[in-house]
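Pasting as-is:
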Amino acid sequence: MFSKLAWDADVFREIQIDYPDEPEPLAFAAINVCISAWSLRNWTESVFAKQQRAAGRDYDNKAFRDTILAAIPEQAACDSIANTAKHATLGEGAWPGGRVDLEWQEGDEDAPPGYVLLHRTRNCELGFAVNRFASLCDHWWAFLRQLGMTVGHERLPDWQQRKLNRIFGRHSSNDTVEPDQKM
């Protein structure tokens, strides 16, 4: 499920770059990221609950969700957006007063003009979705590591390692970088 979340966040970033003047693909990709994060939360809760019960320990779902929200601040927005997409009604949950806006921004020397997806909190704190989704993946990975659910896995999913290898001319994750080929 983490690999799916990372995939959707990567697709969102690519759409932001490649199709800056098309609002629908950006909005649809953002919904996919949120649904993946929501699904990862559900998967993690289920696995953790089974582990706790198998070890003879009590499991408190609300306390565990609070732990997730503390470790992954972006999750509350994702839960609200995914819940709204699923049920067709606004479900603010742990993101009261939160809002998503798709806005056109004029370009400058750092970025071309295009649509950007913004997350706003009740306090009017603003965040670019592309940055928040990158942080979402980082926070999820750290949380999964803390739970011991990443043993033997790399931070970058296999598909992402292959993609980077193609971009930088390496063709196998077994390739080694010689000293004169450092990236």
